[in-house]
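Quick one - first record:
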Amino acid sequence: MQNQTAFNNLGVTKTTDDNDSNMFLTLMLQQLQNQDPTQPTDNTEWLAQLAQYSSLEQMAQMNSGLQNCMDYLSAFYNDSAANSEITQTLSLIGKEVTIQDPENEKNKITGTVSEASFEDGSGKVKINGEYYSIANIVSVRDKSLEQS
């Protein structure tokens, strides 16, 4: 009942930030001021509440820090994956590749990659004057490594 009285005396409305330390301290002071003088609250109870609140606030800050770290790692991973695909595509220039014909599953196209590019976030290679997605590559051969 004393907590409700403190809320009413302050005219407090619920906020979206439940961890507002100013509100907590204000409510605590209101409770102290409005407590029953014949049955005062024990000091250890106040200290326990402060310790709990402090722990909760630190955990919320740690959670926020961990979320920021996860966001950074996610962005780093996405950038790394994109860079890996770029490197992989560029490394195919000059190599002989076999590609599954996207228009005819029974047909395979073999040729030397003369050019590499990116369109819509996807690697493409140019073989025999036509562009093909690297997703259609079946095999890669480096002719320079073959012995004569």
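second record:
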Amino acid sequence: MTLKSRAFIKSVQSLIGTVIGVGIFGLPYVSSQAGYFVGLGYLIILGIVSY
């Protein structure tokens, strides 16, 4: 793996982490609008993706 491809992978990982982090701020609104089970499902999916 070249240095350029490693830098690209790290930048994509950073971008994905930022998007997930910002998505966490929307969780209370989603839960209040969609209901308890949808909010819980959203939280579980985010936990799996960020692990």
